[in-house]
Amino acid sequence: QVQLVESGGGLVQAGGSLRLSCAASGSISTISTNAMGWYRQAPGKQRELVAGFISGGMTKYAESVKGRFTFSRDSAKNTVDLQMNSLKPEDTAVYYCNLEGFSGGYYRHYWGQGTQVTVSS
């Protein structure tokens, strides 16, 4: 069992900043992580990848957040962060932490409960 807990969401004015953090706990040592990152879902829209890393250390950002968001990870603390600067109203969404990888011969997916980010005009 693996748990992902997000924190750092809130209400901010356009142009402001927030830093999201995701802490992983549980049977992490049993997982061979293939990818980990942040997704978001706005009301009435599909969940989309915001930023994350894949095996090999490569990172990927959604085109809409490049230059504004910075993804980082700390293996020692089992955390992954998302620094969000120059926030826009269109960034408003529930942000989810995701981890996926191999465990016991199966490819598994884990999700956090989500944290709300609201950006006012």
Rounded to an integer in angstroms, the radius of gyration calculated over CA atoms is: 14 Å
Gap from first CA to last CA = 40 Å
The structural class is mainly beta
Give the count of helical stretches.
Answer: 0
Oligomer kind: single chain
Order of helices and strands: EEEEEEEEEEE
Uncertain parts: none
User: How much of the sequence is in beta strands?
Assistant: over 45%
Gross morphology is elongated
Give the tally of β-strands: 11
What can be said about the biggest beta sheet? 7 strands, mixed
Assign a percent range to the helix content. under 10%
Q: What do the pLDDT scores average to? A: 93
Description:
This protein is mainly β. Helices cover 0% and strands 62% of the residues. The protein has strands at residues 2-7, 10-13, 18-26, 32-41, 48-54, 58-61, 69-74, 79-84, 93-103, 106-111, 115-120. A hairpin with a 4-residue loop joins strand 7 and strand 8 (79-84). The mean pLDDT is 93.
List keywords for this structure.
mainly beta, four-stranded antiparallel sheet, about 120 residues, seven-stranded mixed sheet
SSE order and pairing:
Layout: E1 2-7, E2 10-13, E3 18-26, E4 32-41, E5 48-54, E6 58-61, E7 69-74, E8 79-84, E9 93-103, E10 106-111, E11 115-120
Parallel strand pairs: 2-11
Antiparallel strand pairs: 1-3, 3-8, 4-5, 4-9, 5-6, 7-8, 9-10, 9-11
Can you describe this structure in just a few lines?
The chain is an all-beta fold and 121 residues long. It has strands spanning 2-7, 10-13, 18-26, 32-41, 48-54, 58-61, 69-74, 79-84, 93-103, 106-111, 115-120. The relative contact order is 0.32.
